[in-house]
Design goal:
It contains 16 helices and twelve strands. It is of the alpha+beta class.
Length: about 425
């Protein structure tokens, strides 16, 4: 990065952060906000409070107090962030063109961070995707979105385990967890995040998710009630009815079929031929998937729900991998479009990789729920700044770059993030 570009970046950062000034009632706290954000943007190997403070010539205690005790509104910052994204970086709802067949695609997903000890809010032994096993970790639930090459990190929440935390309110209070923060299933948290984003003007043409969410009928029905179109993966044991039972009653349970059995043997699938879809990827060779699709009724507690859905059975002939997707798109929707939406979900892993490797998302070391939530919100702010300026740098380079949105380490993002704290004046 040239000296000129570094100077432009410093000026751009100051202007960008000034948009959040109203979240702070005192100027000294706002200045600490700038210091912390510059630390998250820096090339420090560890972006927690102590190394950020020491690198910036501040006291560690002052920055700790900023994150936990100073008065500023992280929820208002998140809302402002979402409103800015909706206003400046996403199209008006329902505006699709030939070059924009997918529109705005949202992703619901969770990530985990391994932790030692028992003081970090929400920590317990549970499945940790970061290590691929049951481990001592925290789990957070997130909403993100993409439109063309632009990606945004919209919302973050801590999953609060029921027995080890929710039912132990004294432990919660020691970690500064308010009494109003209670255990909720992750899919309910995701619906709450969708509602918040909508309240701030975010309109998603599609929502996609993995089988951990697709396997929950309450989540799918909740999206239906909100009128949110979705394409999500479901587990092979997802229960459905390829045809409605004779004399079916919504009050009486029936023998539903698993998704894999329905796809292999159900009438809607037996009558259809395999189709092929080509999925373009930015940095890897294109993929080809074969698929069949049929309309089925979802089973909720053994009873068919009123609406029918697309069930899509997809197979990768090169790897033998099979996936099952469900969508509430209306009959007549092109199935290859639904699969393109479904496979964009790989982008959310991109988002997690960037926030962890470039913004210090997983470097939080405190014992306060308030501090953790504020840290995650500040990482969202940094992610948006990087997304905006990666796009600008890409356009200044010669024409085309193989990356998209906010990709991984092969992208100019790494250059953008690797700056010293003191080189970014406010």
């Amino acid at each position: 990065m040239t000296v000129e570009e570094m100077g432009e970046l410093g000026s751009a950062l100051g202007q960008f952060l000034s948009g959040f000034r109203k979240c702070f009632s005192h100027a000294p706290t706002f200045r600490l906000f700038g210091l912390y954000v510059r630390g998250l943007l820096s090339d420090l190997p560890r972006k927690s409070v102590e190394p950020i403070a020491l690198a910036a010539g501040s006291t560690v205690r002052t920055l700790q107090q900023f994150l936990v005790f100073h008065r500023w509104d992280a929820a208002a910052m998140r809302d402002d962030l979402q409103r800015r994204i909706a206003r400046d970086y996403l199209p008006a709802p329902g505006v699709l063109g030939r070059s924009d067949p997918l529109g705005v695609v949202g992703w619901v997903d969770e990530t985990s961070v391994a932790k030692k000890g028992d003081k970090t809010p929400g920590v317990q032994r549970q499945y940790c995707g970061a290590t691929g096993k049951i481990d001592n970790c925290i789990v957070t639930v997130h909403l993100a979105c993409c439109h063309h090459d632009f990606m945004a990190f919209l919302d973050s929440d801590l999953f609060l385990p029921e027995e080890s935390w929710h039912l132990d309110r004294p432990r919660c209070r020691r970690a500064h967890i308010p009494d109003g923060v209670v255990y909720r299933p992750k899919w309910q948290m995701a619906l709450e995040q969708l509602d918040r984003s909508r309240g701030n003007g975010i309109r998603l043409d599609w929502l996609s998710f993995d089988e951990g969410y697709g396997g929950k009928p309450g989540f799918l029905l909740g999206l239906d009630r909100r009128g949110q179109l979705f394409v999500g993966e479901v587990p092979r044991h997802w229960a459905c009815f390829p045809t409605l039972p004779r004399h079916h009653s919504t009050q009486a349970p029936h023998a539903a079929k698993r998704a894999d059995n329905a796809a292999h043997h159900g009438k809607p699938f037996q009558a259809t031929r395999w189709q092929k879809v080509r999925l373009a990827r930015k940095t890897l060779p294109d993929q080809f998937w074969h698929y069949k699709a049929g309309r089925v009724h979802m089973s909720d507690d053994g009873k068919p729900v009123g609406n029918d859905y697309w069930l899509i059975w997809a197979k990768n002939p090169d790897t033998g991998e099979e996936k099952y997707f469900v969508s509430n798109a209306p009959p007549g929707t092109a199935i290859d479009l639904l699969l393109r939406v479904a496979f964009t979900r790989a982008g959310v892993e991109h988002v997690f990789r960037v926030v962890k490797t470039e913004t210090g998302f997983d470097h939080f070391e405190g014992r306060s729920y308030v501090g953790l939530m504020r840290h995650m919100t500040l990482c969202q702010v940094v992610f948006l700044f990087l997304a905006i300026h990666v796009d600008r740098i890409r356009k200044k380079k010669s024409g085309h770059h193989p990356g998209a949105g906010v990709p991984g380490t092969e992208h100019p993002l790494s250059t953008l993030a690797a700056v010293q704290i003191t080189t970014l004046p406010l």
